[in-house]
Each structure stands twice: as C-alpha cells, then as structure tokens.
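To: structure desk
From: M.T.
Subject: fold request, one chain
Message: Could you run this one when you get a chance? Sequence is below, nothing fancy, just the single chain.
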Amino acid sequence: IIDSNAASLKKIINDILLVTLMKNTNVAAHCVECSMKSLLDSRMWHEAMSLTLRRHNTVTIAEGGEDVKVNADPQMVATVMENLIINASMFSAEGSTISIGWDNSNEGSEIWVSDQGEGIDPRHHDMIFERFSKINSFSPGCGLGLFISRIYMRKMGGSIGVESNLGEGARFTLRFYPPPTYTALPHMEESVDSNSRDPVTFH
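Reply: Done. Structure tokens follow.
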C-alpha cells in the first residue's frame, strides 16, 4: 500500500510539473519514424506495469498483424501509455485483465488499452480530457493524465479517443498516421515563344 501511494503521489507531482512546463514553454514533439512494435515495448512504461501488477491485474499485449511505421515521439507515447495503464488499473477490480494491442487500417495505425472496470458514461467522454477533470472527486490523481495525453497526441499529429459505457469497461485508442511521402514533380518544359531563338524552359 505504501509503495502504491508513493507511486501515485509521484505521478501527481510529475503531472503538475509537466502541465506547468507546457504552460510556460512550447513543448515540441520530436517525432521520428517508429515501428508499432517498438512503441509497445513495455520497458518504456515499466513503472505503470509495476503498479498494475502489484494490484494483481493481468496485462496482455496482443499484436495486430504487420508491423508498420508511424510518425511518433517515443517518449511522449511512453507517457501517454503510462497514463492509460495506470488509469485502467485504478478503475478496475483487482485481478481483472487489462489488454493492450494495436491494429492497422488504411487511415493509419492504432494502439489501444482496454479494461474491465466500471466504465465511463458517454456524457463524460469529452470532459475527461479536460484539465483537472475528474468524474469521481474521491478517485486518486488530480485529473491531468488524460489532459496531458491529448496534448501529446495532438503534438504528434495523432489523436486519442475513448469507447465506453457504464459497467462495460473502457477502451482508449491512440491513432497514428504514416510518415508523409513526397513525390517529385516531373520536369515541365514549356516554350514561351515558339518563334524565339532561345526558348525558356521551366523546371
């Protein structure tokens, strides 16, 4: 219990410091080309995993097919994943299962975290991403984790969303998009005056 409370207090302090930093400086995402598998390396969020396992929750990580490349800041993704995993653990019964996985689609790739917890009323789906927002004032934390997560995903050009109903658990989804591709335009040669001795060529 002492370890769990210490970890919760540490996260609250870190979240407040991070929000203060983002308010006073322009925190930029340092996106690089990452594979989906590398973003799901649980060593990146070992503190969240440790807290979750201390609550005797089972964590499963499922792969979603072909490994693809996306634009992301690995450290930002690690912070977002820690927030989602800790939330899933806090709002789920001890001994329940937390599932993590990823999927690909024509529009991009997704990482999802789902739990078997108490669920979230659809009326609150937007509110939970606001600063200092808490549905239950008695729940742990200070209501900054999802606020930070949404800012980070936007800075990376992605998005975060939730699917949930009361009593049915919750599934949070991070959406990433493939790195931009650039196609070189073919050289276009055009004579301004076909009668001129030296035609002008545009490249």
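Reply (cont.): DSSP finds five helices and seven strands in the chain. Let me know if you need anything else for the meeting.
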